[in-house]
Fold this protein.
Amino acid sequence: MYTFKLVTLYDLRMLYIWLNYAHVCEFWDDSKGLTYEQFKAVFKKKLLDKNVKMYIIYLNCNPIGMIQRYYETPSEKYELNETAIGIDLFIGEIEFCYNGFGPRIIRNFIKKHVFNHNEINFCVIDPNIKNEKAVKAFSRVGFKGYKKYQEKDTYLLMKLSRDEFYL
């Protein structure tokens, strides 16, 4: 059973450890080159951001990763004309990677924390195009890739409509 608990200051050490594991930091560079104290200062600010909600992912009461949601306002980047909720996640505990847990976590989270908001009709994500496992996991949930963009790497914009999710 998956549950999601809001990240608190007490979770920061665990997040720092996870973000420094090779399988996580390959695509998440939030703590790259930072001491724990520097990381803590950065993440304390993120915890105060009212637009972003970060959650620890629990499987049967055991923490295994982190997922966050944020409001994505209408923008050219996502080609949206209405507000959507964006999500990002990683599984920190390696034994839960690449075993089909990702799509189940994503579905469960979207049901509880995205489409529970009646005014939200789309969920969006933008994985690194090199992160083929993530792209595949999101595709299994029903996300459709529709546009690539370049920053420091190439990312694939993907979206899922409420209607497609509940088919």
Summary: The two ends are 23 Å apart (CA to CA). The mean pLDDT is 93. Helices lie at 12-19, 22-25, 36-48, 101-113, 132-141, 162-165.
